[in-house]
């Protein structure tokens, strides 16, 4: 009478390999799906904002999500001593930064970061306020919500200008002990100033949500294929015993 050996279960390391690779692929699928949902919301905000009426400073107390891409006109003065440079902003193959300076509206206890535009990278001199930009007066632009992505390292001071990887109004409000609203005003090109202000969507931003969802499906398919291959190799190993 022959005895049939029971099949050996996969080893612990085989299970760890399966779960690790599948987990990475599934997380990438979820990330792309999430990016697609965020892009759909962003595109809706772009359309809504472009069709919105101009706001005054007194009308900017709504939530940031409700004001994104809305045009705003403010009268006040720049505070040149409070400025940061958003690093790693390449344009047309050239390295550069976007210079942001605090602006204090009239009769207001709060200030707002104003993005003056793009300037080529120069770590020797550092960006300064354009000489043609009036320190006092009226400015016009659109509301922009700073990105919340994670960056490595903190702010670095070069020639009296803080270089940063992302814009964090709350952190700078605490550092400088001033009130700063949680959004940024992207200065309109019609306002005098020497810096490049092309706020059109970048090539990556022009990707529609459907493309991100397609990438999510591809990562999901890879995860399923990986699980199938893992199972097939395990069965093949059983057959060779």
Topology (elements, then pairings):
Layout: H1 12-50, E1 55-56, H2 64-67, E2 71-86, E3 96-105, E4 110-120, E5 136-144, E6 156-158, E7 161-164, H3 169-176, E8 179-187, H4 209-239
Parallel strand pairs: 1-2, 2-7, 4-8
Antiparallel strand pairs: 2-3, 2-5, 3-4, 5-8, 6-7
As a whole number of angstroms, the C-alpha radius of gyration is 26 Å
What overall geometry do the principal axes of the alpha carbons give?
A: elongated
Helix proportion: 25-40%
The chain-level structural class is alpha/beta
Count of individual helical segments: 4
Secondary-structure element order, N to C: HEHEEEEEEHEH
Q: What's the β-strand tally?
A: 8
Strand content: 25-35%
The major sheet is characterized as: 5 strands, mixed, barrel
Query: What's the average pLDDT?
Result: 81
Strand order of the largest sheet: 2-3-4-8-5
Query: How far apart, in Å, are the first and last alpha carbons?
Result: 20 Å
How many distinct domains? 2
Poorly predicted segments: none
Structure description:
There is one protein chain. This protein is α/β, with parallel strands linked by helices and 241 residues long. The protein folds into two domains: 12-41 and 208-239; 54-187, no CATH class. 34% of the residues lie in helices and 27% in strands. It is built from four helices and eight strands, in the order αβαββββββαβα. The protein has a five-stranded mixed beta barrel with strand order 2-3-4-8-5. Strand 1, helix 2 (64-67) and strand 2 form a beta-alpha-beta unit. Helix 1 (12-50) packs antiparallel against helix 4. The longest helix has 39 residues, at 12-50. The protein starts with 11 loop residues before the first helix and ends with a helix. The model has no long low-confidence stretch (mean pLDDT 81).
């Amino acid at each position: 009478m022959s005895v049939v050996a029971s099949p050996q279960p996969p080893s612990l390391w085989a299970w760890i390999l399966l779960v690790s690779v599948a987990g990475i692929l599934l997380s990438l699928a979820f990330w792309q799906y999430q990016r697609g949902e965020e892009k759909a919301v962003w595109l809706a905000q772009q359309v809504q904002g472009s069709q919105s009426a101009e706001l005054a400073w007194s009308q900017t107390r709504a939530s940031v999500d409700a004001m994104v891409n809305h045009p705003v006109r403010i009268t006040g003065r720049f505070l040149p001593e409070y400025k940061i440079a958003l690093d790693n902003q390449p344009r047309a193959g050239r390295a550069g930064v976007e210079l942001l300076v605090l602006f204090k509206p009239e009769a207001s206890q709060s200030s707002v970061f104003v993005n003056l535009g793009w300037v080529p990278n120069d770590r020797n001199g550092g960006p300064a306020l354009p000489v043609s930009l009036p320190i006092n007066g009226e400015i016009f632009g659109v509301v922009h919500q700073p990105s919340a992505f994670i960056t490595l390292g903190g702010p670095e001071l070069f020639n009296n200008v803080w270089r940063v990887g992302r814009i964090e109004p709350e952190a700078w409000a605490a550092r400088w002990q001033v009130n700063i609203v949680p959004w940024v005003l992207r200065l309109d090109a019609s306002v005098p100033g020497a810096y490049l202000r092309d706020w059109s969507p970048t090539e990556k931003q022009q990707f529609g949500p459907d493309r991100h969802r397609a990438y999510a499906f591809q990562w999901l398919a890879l995860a399923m294929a990986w699980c199938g291959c893992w199972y097939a190799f395990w069965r093949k190993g059983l057959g060779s015993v």
